[in-house]
What does this fold into?
Amino acid sequence: MALLTARQLTGRDHSHVVEVPQFHCRLHPLAAAALLSMRRAAARSGLELALVSAFRDFDQQLVIWNGKFRGERALLAPDGTRLDVAALSEEQIVRSILHWSALPGASRHHWGTEVDVFDRARLAPDARPRLLPEEYAAGGVFAALDAWLTEHGADYGFFRPYDSDRGGVQPEPWHLSFAPLASVLLPQLTVAVIAAALSGAPLAGAAVVQRLLPEIHARYVCAVAQPDGVALAARSATPAARPS
It folds into this structure.
């Protein structure tokens, strides 16, 4: 499997992703082909697989980070309640951001292998998902999609890296990762690679991030679920023949 350059891995170069008009996003070609196959299979079960987000580059992630650090975007506690940025220290702000949003250069969304999904058929045309765990839990609006993904997602190469609380990123049942690529890319994203990407960037809280970077790498980059053998063995060209 071809590896990404450090610039691609950290979202500073987007030459590894392509436009996917069916989803109005950009993805790595292999992940895109697998996702389209999975969408067709899900449709046969009455589900309309749609995306909230896919590839995000470094600059997009930087806007999200700085907006939350400055209180221009909502900063949430692990339980989903809104925090008052003015009442927090810089380290507390950094740690709070990391519960829900990745550090620029350290986001899996830079790879083109990650998507945040929902079932558009379960929402009104002008409604948007909130991306909260209860939406995907039993009785939630996306419970049927959650169950289908649990049963069939691995057949198309996808797994949930944030399936449970491992002391880092909060559980994200909507976040899917294309295992054949992501499992190869994660070991490349070292502390040194992230530090180089951040060097000179206008990152809010940069001094705190620099001090905490080894911990951030361990807790928020490496502490993820591992894909099973079915997901790892999947290829974008083969899932059409798998059960749906």
